[in-house]
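Deliverable D2.4 — example input (structure tokens):
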């Protein structure tokens, strides 16, 4: 699987460049600070419309501005895809309308929110080459028992009898080995390394001296793990109980 690390990266610009070199990155529309260095040193990158952080702050996404930004970058050889604008707690009709308006040439990926119907997930998986999973509603926080139960229902809905998903899957805010090792994800992202590289308390008295070095340690530990090749129903049911 591909491990996308969210930006911007803390520390000095040199720290950020060293951390991003050779990795895969996610760049959010509201924080484009590192997009230049990402485009130069990363193996590949994706764009996030920033709907989750904007939603947390009570704001509204500039859909036209985001679309123009993707248009400017989508021909770059390192560009993988962009998340199609979505309404985190919106209804399915509103999100389907945003999908219909998205230019297909821009390699967009739709988001299925966990509070939405399994029928919509099945439809998206049949119509798009990749679907991103977004935690929302009562399943807002990845890794809880309730969240796992909902994810199990989603996996059961789009995986065949051998545990193979109907399309490629991406986990939003799910770049945690405790999560992605149990799911057949093609990729996942988080800001874990970028945010916690600045936290000396996470390491204790033997912490690496710079934020960039600490971020590298966190990322290396994450990247040492891979996703599950298939959805294993029985073992996952045992884990969620």
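Example output (designed residues):
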């Amino acid at each position: 699987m591909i491990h996308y690390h969210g930006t911007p990266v803390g520390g000095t610009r040199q720290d950020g460049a060293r951390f991003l070199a050779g990795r895969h990155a996610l760049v959010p529309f509201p924080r484009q600070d590192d997009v230049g260095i990402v485009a130069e040193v990363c193996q590949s990158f994706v764009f996030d419309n920033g709907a989750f952080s904007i939603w947390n702050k009570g704001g509204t996404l500039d859909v036209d501005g985001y679309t123009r930004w993707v248009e400017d970058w989508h021909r770059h050889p390192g560009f993988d895809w962009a998340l199609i604008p979505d309404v985190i707690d919106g209804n399915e009709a509103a999100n389907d309308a945003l999908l219909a308006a998205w230019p297909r040439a821009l390699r967009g990926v739709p988001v299925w929110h966990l509070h939405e119907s399994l029928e919509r997930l099945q439809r998206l998986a049949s119509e798009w080459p990749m679907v991103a999973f977004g935690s929302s509603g009562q399943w807002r926080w990845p890794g809880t028992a309730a969240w796992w139960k909902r994810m199990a229902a989603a996996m059961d809905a789009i995986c065949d009898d051998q545990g193979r998903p109907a399309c490629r899957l991406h986990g939003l805010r799910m770049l945690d080995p405790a999560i992605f090792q149990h799911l057949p994800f093609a990729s996942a992202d988080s800001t874990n390394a970028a945010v916690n590289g600045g936290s000396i308390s996470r390491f204790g008295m033997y912490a690496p001296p710079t934020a960039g070095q600490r971020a590298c340690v966190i990322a290396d530990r994450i990247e040492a793990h891979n996703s599950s090749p298939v959805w294993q129903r029985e073992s996952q049911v045992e884990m969620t109980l």
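The two ends are 27 Å apart (CA to CA).
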